């Protein structure tokens, strides 16, 4: 059976690589619809190649332009359009949009029992309890696309989860892993965008440099696999070959290894429970690599990672504050309005001023998200 795919965030890094997988396996997957932002060039290429039934574009005027060019395709736009395309007839919804904008569409798709391949960290970080509770209620599968969580998912597959004692996430350390905090004071945007191992979008590359990305992944791991934060560790691993590990109560450790290629976990989320060949992909050659390096995490050096653990332990709306403050601060950094170290300073200030609300509903989450962004913007004045 050919799986029908809806892809949110088609023109971003994960979206483009998802299209690669669909292209490689035309007899297994078909792209029936996708959502894009403002990149009209890539949008037109995707429409021409995959001939989708429905497309969501960010701006209404762009939707009108495209509708005139492609009369056989249905076009929707904006936040409402994102929900419309998320509930369109399909087997798998790939949530690869940036930021918390992916939350509501994902919740609506879950209500239809759809399989959700989730690459959007913010959806689980801000509203993980809503997503997982809803998935249980409606019988929807949540499959991780992040390489670390895909690794944990694979290591736990076929095992008794209650016999697993610890999750170990690996971190490359990002583009500034060898710099001291003193040296970080004057780094540029371009410096931060040079990731040593992975090809990613600008926002996630900055998050990798601050280690916020790993912090969000810790929260995701807690949400997806229901492990206490005390049982989730992070270790520095420069090569990004071991993507994550699970330790069991008998001290055995299961690790998932592979080259740093996001198309591997993307394909696994789409093909699960099957595995499809990737004849053109680079294979892992451990003899060629020679050695793998590991180092204990320094939470004082990577302050943002500690903030993420703090937010997770606080629970409730604090993870929403962490995420919203980070998104706003990263946007300011990319626009060269603040320095690199000010990103974590803004996150910490936003968390310090927030009073946690336990078990927030969607309306509360969206309100806290908006208020946090306003608070961060005001710090510039």
Automatic annotation (TrEMBL):
Its EC number is 1.1.1.267. It is an enzyme of class 1 (oxidoreductase). SUPFAM superfamilies: 1-deoxy-D-xylulose-5-phosphate reductoisomerase, C-terminal domain, Glyceraldehyde-3-phosphate dehydrogenase-like, C-terminal domain, NAD(P)-binding Rossmann-fold domains. Residues 142-225 form the 1-deoxy-D-xylulose 5-phosphate reductoisomerase C-terminal domain. NADPH binds at residues 11-14, 37-39, 120, 122, 201. Mn(2+) binds at residues 146, 148, 217. Its cofactor is Mg(2+); Mn(2+). Gene3D superfamilies: 1.10.1740.10, NAD(P)-binding Rossmann-like Domain (3.40.50.720). GO terms for molecular function: 1-deoxy-D-xylulose-5-phosphate reductoisomerase activity; isomerase activity; manganese ion binding; NADPH binding. InterPro entries: DXP_reductoisomerase, DXP_reductoisomerase_C, DXP_reductoisomerase_N, DXPR_C, DXPR_C_sf, NAD(P)-bd_dom_sf. It comes from the Bacteria. 1-deoxy-D-xylulose 5-phosphate binds at residues 121, 147-148, 172, 195, 208, 213-214, 217. Belongs to the DXR family. Catalyzes the NADPH-dependent rearrangement and reduction of 1-deoxy-D-xylulose-5-phosphate (DXP) to 2-C-methyl-D-erythritol 4-phosphate (MEP). This is 1-deoxy-D-xylulose 5-phosphate reductoisomerase. The lineage of its organism: Bacteria, Bacillati, Bacillota, Bacilli, Bacillales. The gene is dxr.
